[in-house]
Amino acid sequence: MTEKPLASKTRLLPLLVLVVAIAIWSGLWLLRVFPESVFPSPLAVAKGLGEELRTGRLAADLVASLFRVTTGFMLAVVLGVPAGLWLGNHLRSRYALLPGINFFRSLSPLAWIPFAILWFGIGDLPAIFLIFMACFFPVVVSTQAAVASIPSVYFRVAHDYGFNGLDLLTKVILPAIAPQVITSLRVTAGLAWLVVVAAEMIAGRDGLGFAIWDARNGLRMDLLVAGMIVIGVIGMVIDRVLLRLTKIPSIRWGYDS
Amino acid sequence: MTHKPLSTKEVSVSFGPVEVFHDLSLEISEGEFVAVVGPSGCGKTTLLNVLSGFLKPSSGSVNYSGRVRMVYQHDSLLPWKTAAQNIALGLRDLPVEAERERQLKEMLRLIKLEEFAAHYPHQLSGGMRQRVELARALAGDTDILLLDEPFSSLDYLTRLRLRRELARMLEELPRTVVLVTHDIEEAAQLADRILVLSERPARICRELRVEIPRPRDLTHPRVVETVHAILAEFGLEQDKDLGESVTTT
User: Fold this and answer.
1) N or C: which end of chain B has fewer CB within 10 A?
2) Is ipTM > 0.90 here?
């Protein structure tokens, strides 16, 4: 049912990998594989990170990026899950709309950047729009697939025990699709985090994406790498938070069996 | 036993050109345990779907009074609910919470799974899951129980054990039962009356009564004799007279 608990030594392995990675990085820097001006040392990056933390710029950029991701992602979930539920229950609408939805899903959200700027200018709105475009269609597709694959016996049971209307939705359909939907939310949240960086690089005046673009323009490679590290770490944290959802007892069944 | 809580009158069911039933009439008395056996694909499950009202017959009528519940072959427990919560589904209509609590405890005791009340279905064995399904269907004020090969996915010994448990549960909570099964022993051990169905379009080709009280042992002579009789009906018995010889010895 559950994996064997790892020995505490094994748990330290990722830290060891981190140490090795920093050692390789330092080695490359010491050997001057790339000119020093375009390849900062770990120490320079650590100093840069400290500087960004002290001035408060990092915190401001982080808040700006997280706000955009949360808003765009939530908007996509709030509209995408109901749309998926509806499509999952209506075969004809599914047949009519699914090709279109798959078209937009396959279209890189970055292709919308020109329009995002033309329509929404610079700032929060274009980034939120791009994140929404990245997340909405995958959420719709995975929700409708989850609804369409609910075993029919659950509906028989729901009928036998008198679940109708709203009860059927909240007490049978939603719990039945929860594991699949949560898996797709993990994937799309990752996507949202990828998109916000690109959006801010082009259509932002703050945020982590803008910060690394700004560092590149100012030839501050140490700040650029510091920004990259923060982006990666936050992405890991977001995934960890969503992973917690899969441990909820009434959801675990979807992963254990 | 004049009251007939469950009956069908000249029911016919067709799926396109395939006629599953032709003018099938059944009368089942209150508290009676009827088993339906027949070759696979003859429409046993379809019969239950008609009886439960899930499937509308092409012609004829189905009459029943009271609440009907079905037990499915397997995996019809809601996996996001614990064993106790699944059983509680069967008690949804009871208005008083204290009474629901009391009956839930009673059902858990009856299936001897008190310690597993908070376990989720995927944490239970196949036999435990089927016991929870039985408890869910029996809970509350069910009148008619429809069992669709409820033990077919279990291993042989677990199946024997669950048969005994079902008989014991029905002693405490008598119900009108229709059991569909391909397990001839199961039918002979559990049922008051056995209907042997023919190939499609299915009709009742033999009706057997097992007039000894339930619960009974699998090795009871009347049960063994009934098994012989059903096997003979399917042409699976070497010596067709064996059935009678068992009765006389």
Assistant:
1) C
2) no
